[in-house]
Write the structure tokens for this entry.
Amino acid sequence: MSLDSYGVLKGRPISSRMGAGQSPHYQIHVVDNTTDYRIAINVKSKLAPSELLYLIADDFRHPIVDELATLSPGFTRLVSQPGGRALDYIRGNLFPATDMRPLAHAIPGPDNDLNEKIDAYVQRAIADEYAEVYALGERWGPEPHRKDKYFGFLPGNGIHDIHMNQGNAANFAKDDGVWQDGGLIIHYPSILDDEGVLRWQEQWVAVFLAFQSQSWHTDDATGHRISVPAPGPTPTPLPGDRDGHVRIAAALVNPQGGDPGLETVTLINASPAPVDLTGWTLADRNKNRSPITSGALAAGDSLKIHLDGTGAQLSNKGGIITLLDAAGLKIDGVSYTREMAQRNGWTLVF
């Protein structure tokens, strides 16, 4: 069924509250030019294990930041498809899933639980009059006759589901969808002193959250978890067993001369055994695919693939590169920004 009203809220944070109670959510009061909103961020799962998986990227570099920066303040409805501002933790190559770690929402002591990890960056944004937050998730409201229960503004209005929204367990599978994941992204602009000297570098920080009950291999159309046949006499490997065996090591995205036939992607087999690449493909940000014609890639060997321009294409404005196996499952993925792609003739190393 997917989310009813997926989009992104851009605004200035002015106050916040730690998540507490039976269903704790970290709350942020945000304003645009005319309207108040509340961002409600899950910090505890209803399903065991209760600790959420989290990743805070404090130097977030991805082509989506250029897309977000052009938005006007307020809520913008997003189309759940590749190539735009929508998030997809699996297909968008935002980060390696293995970088996420479980963390409880409340632990005695300072700066050691999920509430406090998020709060440190939000408080910094509140103190910086030029900082802005971008919350991606599902909109609710406006509720003309109901004040916000945390911050008291009227009408009640906000955004929630600020977490992965696919691969859910059965009770929550109705919310599954692709290109509709949530997240909190904070922009701290560069700061110059009175003499025009740079005192603080521009910074983008991204907060990504997922439930441990969610699957990291999902259907390309529905976002439902991909099931695996019950093991027979020979156990069937679960999806993900080969993740990271073959990796995207480098790419030439801005070659000298014309791009077609000169763009390259280099793979490396990091595993101790050969991997058959028959039927595997490379995909770009818009899901255009190029086949990998090689057969087996020996342990420790690398393979340079030349893109002819008829399938996957590496945009000089930033993009993503995804490695898919013969079943269409993601094995690895990387991203690069417009800035990274500007050095003509240089190979990007991931």
